[in-house]
């Protein structure tokens, strides 16, 4: 028990029963001398394991050769963006994210050095550690508010983790409720705990929705957010809004998004007030990680992959220089309005790209706050997302006046005099098939606003849209995927395979029956 409850984040076991294998990489306090039961006996000391979970959300942790693209929440946002149509990878560079971009990871499920292994184990470790905290809720001492603060966050972490597993290891919720998803664990696990079979998408989402509502109930009667890294009431509402959007529960998505806006106290900012997107103290940031000098991760970090640092003459530039992240030129040239102040987030001159005019437009949205020390905060949720979520939900509910008002809340700070007369909810079968609807307009602004932050493929999946990459958009030939069914929203291209180690360690999982398709179709 003592070893389990050190709450650290390496030496991961390849099955869902992870906590018995955790060693000692991410201790956030000198906990070696404290038994697990002592740590969880009161709300104050329970913050130690809770803080450990949060630190693993922004620290490079992978125990294998995948370290430099496995640094928690922000690493998976890049993965999900390069899998879509809007974030172009100019070149292979050192190889990080290139195989995600090319959809060339699923067949490698037997290796611990590839995406299936790190993502599966990351989220199940957060679930496992959250379960240990939740198991102590009846005996944890402290004021009601302090206990709620700890327990509410643990429920939210578990909900968020299962939500991300469902989005990546199964097809999207609507229309696939009876598809196999992932095993469910709601109790503490040890080395001898029997592995569980895959539950259906419906069953997993029932747990997700229950957990996030319980988190909200607890956090309603809890102290205010003490650290931007920690999930408070507003962030829990924000996670609920994301879940409801994916489930197409439009009423809940609208309500949760508005609740998140109100509870956060955050305001939409002009682009000029949060350049670089590297400061969690900005007034529009709801959730993120303030990165300290000893926590940067250097090459294994978000800004290392995003910022090309062309303006500096340095001998060792980050990965973002050799594997440049660029915007789809069609999105920039033809969808973004000419007067949109977000245009400054990208450089259309392509002066530094080896592909020149053939390339997409280099990103300048995400910049180190201090390259000499590899600093830059990670932003995981902004209030602008909540307005756009509410707008889409209201559009789907037929309340176009409310939808436009929420859309204007963002766009009035992006385009002077912005207005739209669009109406309707129609979307094309692919993102390049245009309908001119209001919902499409809202999604377009979401694509621009949340580029690099949310993960485009997750939106494409819930929208049941395919896509096509083209040379005209700026994609390199190697990444066009022209012989792959990216235009088929029902295919299995973007459903990750389950790591072999799960089947090796779980008697209730059968490789021949329970593995996701290694190809594009079942």
UniProtKB/TrEMBL annotation:
Signal peptide annotation: 1-25
InterPro entries cross-referenced by the UniProt entry: SusD-like_N, SusD_RagB_dom, TPR-like_helical_dom_sf
UniProt domain SusD-like N-terminal: residue ranges: 102-245
Record's subcellular location: Cell outer membrane
UniProt cross-references to Gene3D superfamilies, sorted A to Z: 1.25.40.390
Keyword Repeat listed: no
Pfam family, one: SusD_RagB
Family listed: Belongs to the SusD family.
Protein known as: RagB/SusD family nutrient uptake outer membrane protein
Native organism taxonomy: Bacteria, Pseudomonadati, Bacteroidota, Bacteroidia, Bacteroidales
